[in-house]
Design goal:
The structure holds two protein chains of two kinds.
Chain A: E1 2-5, H1 6-22, H2 26-38, H3 42-61, E2 71-79, E3 82-85, H4 89-103, E4 127-133, E5 138-145, H5 147-150, E6 154-158, H6 163-178, E7 186-194, H7 196-206, H8 218-231, E8 247-257, E9 262-269, E10 276-279
Parallel strand pairs in A: 1-3, 2-4, 7-8
Antiparallel strand pairs in A: 2-5, 5-10, 6-9, 7-9
Helix pairs in contact in A: 1-4, 2-3, 6-8
Chain B: E1 2-6, H1 11-14, E2 22-31, H2 34-47, E3 58-60, H3 88-93, E4 98-101, H4 107-116, E5 119-122, H5 128-132, E6 135-142, E7 151-165, H6 172-180
Parallel strand pairs in B: 1-2, 2-3, 3-4, 4-5
Antiparallel strand pairs in B: 2-7, 5-7, 6-7
Classes of the chains: A alpha/beta, B alpha/beta.
Chain lengths: 280, 183
Amino acid sequence: MREIETAKITEAVKKMCIDANYFLNSDIYEALECAKNNESSPIGKEMLCQITKNADIAKANNVPICQDTGMAIVFVEIGQEVHISGGSLADAINEGVRQGYTVGYLRKSVVSDPFIRVNTKDNTPAIIHFNLVEGDGLKIEIAPKGAGSENMSKIYMMKPSDGIEGAKQAILDTIEAAGPNPCPPMVIGVGCGGNFETAALLAKKALLRPVGSHSDKEHIKEMEIELLEKINSTGIGPQGLGGKTTALGINIETYATHIACMPIAVNISCHVTRHAVCNL
Amino acid sequence: MTINVTTPLTKEKSSALCAGDIIAITGTIYTARDAAHKRMLEDYERLGYFPFDMENAIIYYAGPSPAKPGEVIGSAGPTTSYRMDAYAPFLLDKGETGMIGKGARNAEVLDAMKRNGAVYFAATGGAAALISSHIKKAEVIAYDDLGAEAIHKLYVEDFPCVVVVDSLGNNLYESEKAKYRTL
């Protein structure tokens, strides 16, 4: 049994909240640089230039890339041979979020109830997903996610007869409907299979995969490639102002499903798709 | 070519702007987003006035991150505009001439813009640190309890944006998308 102190967890979460919001990951930055060279729309190109310049300013000045520093989405993989000492794991994570959003001058964007809507003033609670795995490791991944793109996400409970072509069309329809709203160029996470909640969670997890990477499954890899090309032919372009850079990447994850089911969840993210990871 | 626009945005100035114009705004603008819009309309119903002069005003749909010590403001990019569609026609009818945000608007907003000769600008979503460098003064003038959603009076210099919908209803999102669509 390996002991891990909650204080260590809080400290790591605090740092990751700040780092993820100040520093754009290299996969996204490189994809943006590449898109700049390929973009034929003058306004689209100007938007991409502003976006990378913005990332440079955020990094140099230690300020948030985007004012919407999101809700903190936390993925925890905890080994079954780990013992957490000093308090609850969830409390330690929330304390890290509280401290990170306070000392990092990040925006507090959480309200305690969807209808009464009073700001909790410290960006807690985080949304935490626990996963119990073998071994004595503890992996924590933080993905702060803004709401502009989150609001454009959709879930479809499709029929098996709709097939892979039906799924592709549903994904494309979601992107077309989103248009300029989610701050394109977007990053798109798709979850196929499982059930209602599993598809949504898979879509969110798909966003953790670097842009430019592909599924190990051949038919899914082909689907990713085909869809990215189609999405970039919609004309939406950077910020919806026209062009061929509508998305930087689309990552698709799958899971087994019921004989009657074919759920498809599309989680849209923006060009500020953030995440930070640590192994304790 | 960039067109310089100064506030207040009179109807004479707004009607001269065309969809696709690259704009640099200098002057006073006001931030308001979801909760502030809701409260502004409720307050107007009750009190008969807004927290600032709506005549020829530009509202920036934004909720900045907190300012670090010694800074004017935190990162301050635009939020998605459609969530303000329920409130915007009323404000446009009461004198608002410019809105800055990002994303599509509904038919009611577009009608109210035409009716009142107003303009919708898009700022670059997610370019919040870059945009902040154009904000020279910031002061919370109403609804402090809303935190990031409070109404801020901003003095901006060469604030970068694009005319997406002009006072005649020309829509850059639609025209540019069609131009680059190959699907």
